[in-house]
Amino acid sequence: MSLQPYIDKKILVLTADGRTLTGTLLSCDQLTNLVLQSTIERVIRPHDDPEDSEEVPHGLYLIRGENVVICGLLDEQMDSDIDWAKVRGSIIGGIKHL
Question: Which band of pLDDT confidence, cut at 50, 70 and 90, is reported for residue 94?
Answer without folding.
Answer: confident
